[in-house]
Amino acid sequence: MWNLIRLVGMGIILLYMQVIIAPGISIFGIVPNFMLAFVVFLNLNMSIIPALTIIFFLGIMQDLTTPNLLGINTLCYIVLSLIVNSFHQSLDKEKFLSHIIIISIVNLIYFIIFFVVQLVMMGYSIKLIPLVLFNIVYNTALSVIFTYALSLFYRMKLNFNED
After folding, report:
1. Under 8 Å between Cβ of 130 and 115
2. N or C: which end of the chain has fewer CB within 10 A?
3. Coil, strand or helix: which one is 56?
4. At what angle do helices 129-155 and 96-122 cross, to 10 degrees?
5. What is the reported pTM?
6. Spatial distance between the Cα atoms of 24 and 158, rounded to a whole number of angstroms
7. Which residues partner with 27 through β-bridges?
8. Mean pLDDT score across all residues of the chain
9. Mean pLDDT, to the nearest integer, of 69-83?
10. Is the dihedral of CA 18, 105, 147, 3 positive or negative?
11. What is the pLDDT of residues 117-147, one digit of tens each?
């Protein structure tokens, strides 16, 4: 139960970081998506049902901050969660390369879905593909860093006992 509370708290903190801090570190108008790292981290550390529940509610909360594409983040996070949860067992969770592969695939799928939806709904130009590719690389690099930072925070032990 304590782990579930910690993971929900980490997700809420990351959501606040996504809304408040991420726009400040954008490059070429590309805002990093910290929640993708959390999707990978959560599915590597939890079973599917609690992970999907947490991701669903965090995705809804994030979608409420961007109402022009309401539901797209939630849909993407759930699909990515199912993909990561089904494939991560075949990869060695302790290897750095397997984390990079999972994170790269998650970012690639997320931004392809997101680009296609924006292309259809908002009429973006195909000329934005180089920017989308940079977005994938930029977010993959940040997702690797954030996934390992989340792993470090998750392994920390807090002691509230007074000795």
Report:
1. no
2. C
3. helix
4. 140
5. 0.80
6. 31
7. 30
8. 81
9. 87
10. positive
11. 877 877 766 777 787 788 888 888 888 888 8
